[in-house]
Amino acid sequence: MNPPARFITFEGIDGAGKSTHIDAVASQLRSAGAQVLCTREPGGTELAEKLRELILHAPMDALTEALLVFAARRDHLQQVIAPALARGETVLCDRFTDATFAYQGGGRGFDVAVLAQLEQWVHGELQPDLTIWFDLPAETAAARREAARTPDRFEREDAGFFERVRSGYQARAQAAPHRIVRIDAALPRDAVWRQIAGALESRQW
Ligand code: TYD
User: Residues lining ligand 1, judged by CB closer than 6 Å?
Assistant: First the structure.
């Protein structure tokens, strides 16, 4: 029998090192027999990828940014995430609504009550079954980002912005301790992977 459909999201400040571990989680779940779909936000559909370009590169105010990330999310949920879960697949999503609370709420200081309202409109009661939060100090993440490609609008922000984003994630994790698992992402890659594998094992996934 196939494992049940699960919705797993991956979060953290830019430079936390999510990407390689998402691939590893996909391989592990596939070898356990799951059908796995990997996707990302903002993005994941033709329309949402167009919105991503704007969100990452066009200047705009915080409300516009929040509306666009939720617009992209709505399309992504309807076109990709909900149908995959309905087919019994496991969906791995690189960022989801916790990122909006962290970046637009924490980073930009936008009203989290408005974000909570948008969250309710866009995905009601649907929440990830598990969120892996890669947590590390803003300055460690900044050092890792320096080696990476050309920065987008978010990656160009200063250390204070990323400290606020980190606090935004912390607040979400405190409010949903069973869903959000904090991983110490400042450790070497193997140690990070062991924590993720432990989180999956403890759920017998
Ligand atoms: P990211 O996922 O880090 O992609 P890449 O690895 O290609 O840089 O980039 C997405 C950016 O979008 C990231 O800086 C966070 C931002 N973002 C928000 O501000 N709000 C959101 O709701 C989401 C999903 C992402």
Answer: 14, 41-42, 69, 94-95, 99-100, 103-104, 154
